[in-house]
Amino acid sequence: MSLLEEGDSPEAATRPLSGGPATVRKAEGEVEPFGPGSLLWDQFGLYTSALAGNSVFILQAMHPAIGTVVDQLSSFRTDPVGRARRSFASVQTWIYGGETAIEEGRRLREMHKPLSAVDEHGVSHHALSAEPWAWVHLTGFYAAVTAPRYFSTEPMTPQKEQQIFDEFMRLGRILRVPERMLPATIPDYWRYFDAMVADTLVPHKVALEVLDAMDKVPPGIPAQLRPALAPMMAVVGNLGRFITTGTLPPAAREKLGLTWTSRDDRNLRIIGQTIARTTPLLPERLRYMPIAYRAREAARAKERLDHALVTRPL
């Protein structure tokens, strides 16, 4: 999920205990698409994954290049709902699209080729520069290992952490992130991540604007509906901002001037555990986003067909 992969035309975390070289299966020069059995297949499509995912948007917007390009070329101000729908559809395609995921990686690269902007200091930024393109992708691993601290009933094991890391590196290849930008190990990742937060990220106005807009009725909503939606948006948006603030790394919060207390952290854990315990009680179609649900449904149907074919009378 990201501010850049939105389909516009042309348009401190607890440290892991494990580490090791990433591995990836390739066929004819391409990375194999994801399917059942991968952790991203089980987790990426959950609606609850978006809860910690908002911090990814903020981390991305704090990168000077990404913030500048989004500020000048994105539709996030005029069509935030449409932009979010396109972004989530693209992200879901990466994991659940099968061979379409490979084509989506190509499409995103082509779509972002013409996107460049000049900031207030006269510095030119391009959406496809290696550093911001990699940052867009690699912030996802931060969210993947941060979310379970709040929104899971059990801690992530070192084995699962390593598997998710390997899968994110595989996803990076689907998205055509330059190989030199992909960390080789989990410790390498955290050295890279901490350095980016400390030395590269800035309190960009886009990040602050996104946070401020969370409790506002988005543009494009008919005038007659806005008064009725305003109270709901205030409640949902304030909760979203609270979760986003809490799941940001402390150094990023400090740069943005956001406060966070030990009491806030306790409250977020209570909220997270409530969500973690109630979500599994919902039907699968209500837990997963549409593309993810349909992909999982289709995979089960294929498994049943394969079984019927293998066990057919001969």
Automatic annotation (TrEMBL):
InterPro entries: MPAB/Lcp_cat_dom. Residues 1-23 are annotated as: Disordered. It comes from the Bacteria. Residues 41-276 form the ER-bound oxygenase mpaB/mpaB'/Rubber oxygenase catalytic domain. Pfam families: MPAB_Lcp_cat. PANTHER family: BLR2777 PROTEIN, ER-BOUND OXYGENASE MPAB_MPAB'_RUBBER OXYGENASE CATALYTIC DOMAIN-CONTAINING PROTEIN. This is Oxygenase MpaB family protein.
